[in-house]
Amino acid sequence: MRDHYTRTAIALHWLIAVLLLGQFAFGLTLEDIPRGTPERAIYVNLHKSSGIVIGLLIVLRIAWRLRHRPPPLPASMRPWQRYAARLSHIALYLCMLALPLSGYLASNFSKYGVKFFNLVHMPPWGPEDKTLYAFFNGTHHVAALLLALFVGLHVLAVAKHMLIDRDGLLWRMWPRRAERGIHPHPDLPLEPR
């Protein structure tokens, strides 16, 4: 049984993490650009376009995860911790899917659609509907807040495992260790999932 994630899973994990962090910052910056200006349209379309790309990477990550079992959790983890880890990962994946999907759907119930990286116009396939736009746009904002919350919990859990439990949990997703196939704590038993 592997004691670390595959190279593909590790690459997708860290790439998506960095892109989502950038997308969060980008989304917050959009609030400072005045509505109705040409500059706002350019930046909004860049945000939409990068969101589509990130969404496709998330789908790829989920597909990879469904076909490749994760490494086992440390046997020292209590049953409630393993249960909480599974639930929080499901919540992370649901939020990561809801965020780009709701943004894309909102765009298709506005008159603008998406101008992919400001080069290729993708006209909306839905009618201009302010109610549906508001619903999906609101869902987009709620999904962003929930994702930020779950990412924060994820980081805190990793910090707990590294600083308090010292069970080497982070090394399962760390590229350098994964490439060498080193288990950082061979004396700690692993429990299969």
TrEMBL record:
SUPFAM superfamilies: Transmembrane di-heme cytochromes (SSF81342). Its main location: membrane. The keyword Repeat does not apply. The chain crosses the membrane at residues 12-30, 42-64, 85-106, 142-163. It is a multi-pass membrane protein. Coiled coil: none annotated. Its cofactor is heme b. It is found in: Cell membrane. The keyword Metal-binding applies. Residues 4-175 form the Cytochrome b561 bacterial/Ni-hydrogenase domain. Keywords: Cell membrane, Electron transport, Heme, Iron, Membrane, Metal-binding, Transmembrane, Transmembrane helix, Transport. Belongs to the cytochrome b561 family. This is Cytochrome b. It comes from Massilia norwichensis.
